[in-house]
Prior knowledge:
The chain is mostly beta strands. It is built from 2 helices and 22 strands. The site of (2R,3S,4R,5S)-2-(hydroxymethyl)piperidine-3,4,5-triol has 9 residues, from β5 and β13.
Amino acid sequence: xxxxxxxxxxxxxxxxxxxxxxxxxxxxxxxxxxxxxxxxxxxxxxxxxxxxxxxxxxxxxxxxxxxxxxxxxxxxxxxxxxxxxxxxxxxxxxxxxxxxxxxxxxxxxxxxxxxxxxxxxxxxxxxxxxxxxxxxxxxxxxxxxxxxxxxxxxxxxxxxxxxxxxxxxxxxxxxxxxxxxxxxxxxxxxxxxxxxxxxxxxxxxxxxxxxxxxxxxxxxxxxxxxxxxxxxxxxxxxxxxxxxxxxxxxxxxxxxxxxxxxxxxxxxxxxxxxxxxxxxxxxxxxxxxxxxxxxxxxxxxxxxxxxxxxxxxxxxxxxxxxxxxxxxxxxxxxxxxxxxxxxxxxxxxxxxxxxxxxxxxxxxxxxxxxxxxxxxxxxx
Length: 380
Ligand code: DGJ
């Protein structure tokens, strides 16, 4: 072979990395004026933002927003965690600076967060009493599919990390939910029928998991005005959503929890407060495929919750415009202004997943989502 052919790929690689290196320093951080759902969303390095299933917090110390999400790699391998939780910062929510990996997965095969575990939907909150940033995430132990249904927690002194992994496991072992009928507070009297998950009685799964702790998969966090924090997650084989109170340092559960939207099979929970009302937006359960969003309202965080309608309107309202909820972000300093954050999943090439951020409108108590090709906080 002509030696030139041998060196060409190498030259191509060198050229590509030089362009990338130059781009890294050259991209103007303020290149976006609008949100453009489903488009490639470039960070300050010109690279598509890699923070899937994420959440955003406003940090009062730095007066900036921080977006945390799953760092995905290419192909369907990207549906497992190979890198960790990625963090980005922003002043205006449109332009994001890469802050690196806040919580890396571990090279230690014994670690619960070892490489190739499933680590999804990380959310970070700040605890003003301990002065720590606390990250919770859905964790599936390596090689066990989605059977572990664990939650993990990590803490940091700085919002961008590094986050130190503390522990992971099922939730509230040995605790019954608020409202559990006294005559149901007993272990299952016959073995659980694995082929017939949803038809074995209202409290079967709670009873099955009482001793080892309740399942938790898709999740979010919410801090109420009184400073108490809550973990909201899909439990009972995704059949029923739970809201569980966190301890004052936010790193564990107090044992107080409620079951909401019984047997409604929901995922991707989000929770926010407008005025005196609490609102929920979530999804149904269809794997990576989009489905119709759900919504709900309550006057107290622990319920009772009332299910409302699909908040989406217009074309593709029945599939959440191709996305699935991940977080609702209250915009700092703008009363009653909320951004609905959703993922457009690409399970065959996970790194290419897109983001659908939309403004939340209200029709009375009903949250409303209309798709917009492009929009900005100033104009909407
Ligand atoms: C839907 C969930 O919302 C995602 O977070 C992920 O767990 C997929 N299911 C896996 O199929």
